[in-house]
Amino acid sequence: MIPVRRSLFAACCLLFLGVVSPLDAGEMKVIAVNVGVGDAIHIQTPSGKNYLIDGGDTSAITNFPALDDADQDFCPIVKYLLDNNIRTIDMMVITHDDGDHYKGLQAILGTKVTSGGANAFKVYSVVYASTTSDLTKLSEHPETTLVRVLSGIRFENVAALSGIWDTALTGLVLSPRTYTGSSSSNSGAVVMRIKYDQVSCLFTADAETADETTMMADYAASELSSTVLKVAHHGSRTGSSETFLNVVKPKVALISVAGNAYGLPDAEVVKRISDTGATILRTDQRGNVGIVTNGINYTISASANPVGIKGVSADPNVHVYPNPAPGKTNPASTKIVYDLTGLADSVKVSVLTPTGDLVREWIDGTTMQGSNYLTWDLKNGMGENVANGLYIVQVEVKVGAGTVYGHTKMAVLRK
Ligand SMILES: [Zn+2]
Fold first, then answer.
1. Which pTM value belongs to this model?
2. Domain end: 302, 334, 355, which one?
3. 241 occurs within a structural domain
4. Ligand 1 centre from 68 Cα, in Å?
5. What is the DSSP string of 190-229?
6. Chain mean position to CA 78
7. 348 CA to middle of ligand 1, Å?
8. How far is ligand 1, taken at its centre, from the CA of residue 98, in Å?
9. Do residues 101 and 227 both lie within one domain?
10. Engineering a disulfide at 308: which of 63, 174, 351, 397 sits with its beta carbon 3.0 to 4.6 angstroms away?
11. What is the pLDDT of residues 42-87, one digit of tens each?
12. How far is the CA of 101 from the centre of ligand 1 (A)?
């Protein structure tokens, strides 16, 4: 047998603005959509069906903007679907009742083309184990089949999903073992694994260590080991035990997380995952993240570039102000501003003379995504005023093994 060759292309074939590129026939796409706090997984199957596992959060729960509203503020998953021209959801899975998982699904069900008009989205099936979520909008969707699942159910054998389940795939529900009534507890959450030929994806919702132990008792390692792992509970230490990770052996780990919200992902969990050798992709750092696969090989997909690397130009935007106009003089200090497109590992800001001599240096510049600045008092490293003249401001940004530079010029003119 020919060994499976898994190819990892650097994420240079990036997808911008959250728009999914068209798939070749027979390809599957699995994307953790960047919904901020919450989980929303989009699976585009080899035959072109759209599945959602959870839908992230939304602030509204009853009134949603219609597509023709002048003042549109769609929740992130609705916006993602519209951006990608997806108006049909073949299968929608509600893993459990936490708002950051199911409320976006409610928004999909509730969005209309015009206020009071037709539904904007068709939803052919809703899959759940236990839910007390507010799904009143379902009554406005006569096309929807409700399917209740438990551990052990194979999607390809569910009669109600005939024509909805893609026959190129196999799918197994791994948790929960029993219905819990309300599933507001993370332990009641639906955990499932989808396999396309040699490539498998495990979706753990907010499962906890006890659930992982149960799954390892109920299923052979071959039913749990997966190419892609959607990391449990946004990288919280309530899950992702070392034993479980060693059974799953992921090649790619997707973490759906909003930058630093609730201290997630947990640093120890991130280390545990990276110790397995998996490539970690975080929605807060790389936007919509996941894989595209033909069932044998896969490529990594991300909608946002690493920090400071915008397409082919590797340049964090750097500017300084005030930068005196001719004939004007500087105030006592100036701001050095640099924009980062994501979290950086480190930032070094330097002021150089035009011939490259170092005047002043800051090693630990702010590494947060967005516009950052520091204030320069126009003094050199020894605390002395610098001479009048032209200076170069350089910002050096490191992310992983990559380094990018941004430069700008500024003048110092004192009376
Ligand atoms: Zn959650």
1. 0.72
2. 302
3. yes
4. 31
5. -EEEEEETTEEEEE-TT--HHHHHHHHHHS-HHHH--SEE
6. 15
7. 35
8. 6
9. yes
10. 397
11. 999 999 999 999 999 987 777 889 999 877 888 999 999 999 999 9
12. 6
Strands 122-123 and 88-89: parallel
Domain that holds residue 131: 16-302
For residues 335 and 291, membership in a common domain is answered with no
Q: How confident is the model at residue 317 (pLDDT cuts 50, 70, 90)?
A: low
Cα 266 to middle of ligand 1, angstroms: 14
Same domain, residue pair 108 and 158: yes
From ligand 1's centre to the CA of 9, what distance in Å? 30
How far, in Å, is the centroid of ligand 1 from the Cα of 184? Answer: 10
Residues 53 and 164 in one domain: yes
CATH number for the domain that contains residue 214: 3.60.15.10
Compute the distance from residue 282 Cα to the ligand 1 centre, in Å.
15
Which of 252, 277, 302 is a domain's end point?
302
Place of tokens 């501003």: 337
Q: Are residues 277 and 348 in the same domain?
A: no
283-307 confidence digits (pLDDT tens): 988 889 999 999 999 988 888 765 5
Q: Rounded to the nearest whole angstrom, what is the distance from the C-alpha of residue 57 to the centroid of ligand 1?
A: 10
CA distance 44 to 80: 13
Q: Which of 361, 354, 358, 357 is nearest to 376 (CA)?
A: 361
Number of domains in the chain: 2
